[in-house]
Each structure stands twice: as C-alpha cells, then as structure tokens.
Amino acid sequence: MTDRERVIAYRVAAHQFDRTATGPSALRVFDLGVQDSERSALPALAARLETPDLADSVLTWSVRGAPHWHRPGALPGLAAALWPLSDADAVTRMNRPPVTAGLAVLRQVVEALRAVVDRPMTKGEASAAITPLVPPEVTGWCRRCAATHVHDPVFRLAVLPAGLRFDPTARTVTFVPVAGSRTPDRTTGFAGLVADYLRLHGPAGPSEVADFVGAPVREVKAAWPDDLVEVAPRAWLPADRATAFENPPRPDVARLLPPLDPYLSARDRALLVPDEGRRKEVWRVLGRPGAIMVDGEVLGTWRARATGNRLDITLSPFAPLDLDRFEDEATRLATARGLDRARLT
Questions:
Q1: Which InterPro entries is this protein grouped with (predicted)?
Q2: Would the pLDDT of 1 be above 80?
Q3: Are 151 and 289 in a shared domain?
Q4: Is the domain of 30 the same as that of 128?
Q5: Which pLDDT tens digit goes with each residue over 85-105?
Q6: β-strand 174-177 against 139-142: which pairing, if any?
Q7: CA–CA gap between residue 148 and residue 182 (Å, rounded)
Q8: At which of 177, 202, 233 does a domain end?
Q9: pTM, to two decimals
Q10: pLDDT tens-digit profile of 143-186?
Q11: CA–CA dist 340, 235 (Å, integer)
Q12: Which of 343, 319, 324 minimizes the C-alpha distance to 333?
C-alpha cells in the first residue's frame, strides 16, 4: 500500500463500515458524536449498522456548535473536554465578539442559561430570558427576530456546558436540563478528545484537530498530548492504534454516505479527494450532496428526493460504477428516511 492507501484503509476499518457493531453505543463515531444538521444521523448509522437506531442517544449542540447525537451520560465529560483552552480560544469559538476575557464572558452566558432553563424551554424563550443577564458585547440586533438577543455562536457554545440537551420530539429547538451536570471549572479530558479524533480520523496533527473543534491551532499545539505515536511526519495516532495502522485490512465496501457523515468530517479533505474541483463539489457549502464511497475512495456525489413512499436517488459519479453494489444501500437509505423503497438513476 502507498501511504495514502494505508490511511484510507485504516479509516474505513476505524469507521466500522462492516456492520458488525451490535448497536450505536458500540460505534467509534459516537466517541465524537454523530452530526445531525440535515437529517444525516440515521443514514450515517445505516452505513454502519444492520439496524440503525437513535432511541438511546441524546442530542445537543456540541462540536463546533453543531447538533450531534451522543451516548447517554457522555455530555458532562464532553462539556469539560470541549471547554475552551484559553481566553483567546473562547473568543475564537464565540466567533470573535469584542471581548478579551473570553472564558469569563462565556461562563456568564453558561450560568445564565443554567439558571433560566430549569424546565423544558424553547430556544426563543431561553434567549429572551438570558439576554438581559449577559454582557452586551455578546448580544446584538437580529433582523429576522426583530429583537436583541445573544449572538447565535455564543449561545450554541454555551448550551453543552450549561447542561442542556434537546427534546428530539419537539417541533422547534427545545432544551431540557441534564440532571447532575455542572459548569466546567476548566478544560479536562482534552487529551482523550484528541485521541478519539485520531482513532477515527487519524493519523493527523494539531491543525486537523483544531479545525475539527474550532480552536486556534496554537492552543491545540500547546495542549497536544505527549503520549501519542508519530507514525508519519506531523501525523500521530494513539499508541493502541499504531499496530492497526501498520497493516490495515484492504477495504471492500460500497456506501452512499449522507451529507455530514462522520467519514467526511476528517479535516484533511485533500487526502480524501485530491482533485480540487471534485473536492469543492463534495463539500459544497450550500445544498450539500451525499458522497459515493467505494473502498474508502469518494467516487462521486448523490442527491435524493422522496416521491410518495419511494426515495429517488440520482448518482453523479466521477468514474463508471457498478450500480449493483448500491441497490441494497439505496434501500437502506430509504428505510432510514421512513420510506418503503428506492430507485437509483
């Protein structure tokens, strides 16, 4: 294998596309969370499990302020691991409001949320209640809402450490307090978060981890664990994964990955898709497509729409494909979306 082939093979195995995991809690992707910004979570699980299910998972804003599903009981530890590493890191993750004491300001917003949301409460209700309680530098006029409220990136960053999850059955964003949670005193468990990223998306370095969590690279470099193994120049793995990287099994898998699938969340996109034009198509900012993945290689994009009880999936491959390999995957996607059948074109 070439170095790139080895990395791809390692990641395919790490992502458990073989569908042998017994359930969501056994999936390594749940170490970091499964993003669900565009109804992507269940299709992502369908690519890894025989029976995808989110019933025992919890949903909240976590990594980069995006909605992610996590294991029950994981939120307090994740909140401490994702707590900003410094004032500068806090300001960066809050989208750079005009403050210098970033950690103190974030703590004010977190404590205000914790005090106000003592029962299920919509985002609008919570925002209106905390806005008078926080520094004005992190609030602003919202034309859409015709009101002054906490800037959205600040609000999203504060939800997890405030001990809040979503009610997934509610039609609008509704927060529910998590029993037993507390505001982190400082960042703890960040080394474990780095190791979880590397086990799933490695080998990688501080710049990729920084991009993943939304922190400045210099802060991540300063907190970089010293017990990792450098398996390639500026690319590390946890010691317990170094042997698996040396001789990974050759991939034999075909999947229709949804937009925002964890496999596409690795930050070294140029490694996954070397061609710049194709890379821009796979990771479009607006109207994200899904990705056609064969043996770890991203070989095209796909889009789908429901027609009655059927999911019509249109493939746009970068090279000729064996459609037979995707018939079952199309059916699994349809089932994950609550539809009876699928049609590939």
A1: AlkZ-like (IPR009351)
A2: no
A3: no
A4: yes
A5: 999 999 999 999 999 999 999
A6: unpaired
A7: 28
A8: 177
A9: 0.96
A10: 887 778 899 999 999 999 999 999 999 999 999 999 889 999 99
A11: 44
A12: 343
Would you state the pLDDT for residue 39? 85
Grouping H, G, I as helix, E, B as strand and the rest as coil, residue 158 is: helix
Q: Is residue 262 part of a domain?
A: yes
Please tell me whether residues 22 and 144 are part of one structural domain: yes
* 139 pLDDT higher than 80: yes
Q: Residue 125's closest CA among 88, 176, 59?
A: 176
Distance between CA atoms of residues 345 and 335, nearest Å:
18
Give, in order, the Cα–Cα distances in Å from 158 to each of 7, 129, 140, 343.
35, 14, 17, 43
Q: Which residues pair with 60 in a beta bridge?
A: 68
Which of 156, 177, 198 terminates a domain? The answer is: 177
298: its two tokens: 């991203």
Q: Which amino acid, residue 99? A: V
Looking at the fold, whether 138 and 284 belong to one and the same domain comes out as: no
Q: Quick count: other Cβ atoms within 10 Å of Cβ 206?
A: 19
Mean pLDDT rounded to a whole number for the chain: 95
Task: Measure CA of the first residue to CA of the last residue in the chain; give whole Å.
Answer: 33
- Which residue range(s) make up the domain with 302? 254-344
- Two tokens at 278? 């194709």
Instruction: Name residue 15's amino acid.
Output: H
Does residue 205 lie in a domain region?
no
CA distances from 148 to 86, 156, 340 (A): 28, 16, 45
More confident residue, 287 or 299: 299
**Are both 163 and 275 inside the same structural domain?**
no
Whether 24 is in a domain gets the answer yes
